[in-house]
Design brief:
- The chain has 114 residues and is α+β, with helices and mostly antiparallel strands.
- It has a single domain, classed as NigD-like N-terminal OB domain (OB fold (Dihydrolipoamide Acetyltransferase, E2P), Beta Barrel).
- Helix content is 17%, strand content 40%.
- It has 1 helix and 5 strands, in the order αβββββ.
- It has a 5-stranded mixed beta barrel.
- A hairpin with a 2-residue loop joins strand 2 and strand 3.
- The longest helix has 19 residues.
Length: 114
């Protein structure tokens, strides 16, 4: 009986831990016109992707999942569906020690504006 209670408590704690560690998204996806900015690969001193929406810049936390077709130097007008994550990402690129903290978003979909 004691072993059963211990196992039940352990399973309950593990379940609570899994729920607490899930991504902190508000579940509200938004779709906006945006500018997708590609500054190059990190390994060659670039800073990856940034997204500008209504004059404010955001850093995608899942930029490694974005289509390579968007890796075009400069700015690309897009329609983007995303979730705000309620935290900041501070990606330091190249040899820079300067903070580049931006509000984090998770990109759900992105397509080029025509």
């Amino acid at each position: 009986m004691k072993l059963f209670l211990q196992l039940t408590l352990l399973i309950g704690l593990c379940s609570l831990l899994l729920v607490a560690c899930q991504n902190n998204t508000d579940g509200n996806a938004e779709t906006d016109d945006a500018i997708l900015i590609w500054s190059g690969e990190y390994m060659v001193d670039g800073c990856g992707f940034e997204v500008e929406i209504d004059g404010k810049r955001f850093k995608p936390d899942n930029e490694n999942e974005m289509d390579a077709a968007f890796k075009v130097e400069g700015e690309t007008p897009v329609i983007i569906t995303y979730e705000k994550l309620g935290r900041q990402l501070d990606i330091r690129c190249g040899l820079s020690t300067q903070s580049r903290a931006m509000d984090a978003i998770r990109v759900i979909s992105v397509k080029k504006r025509t």
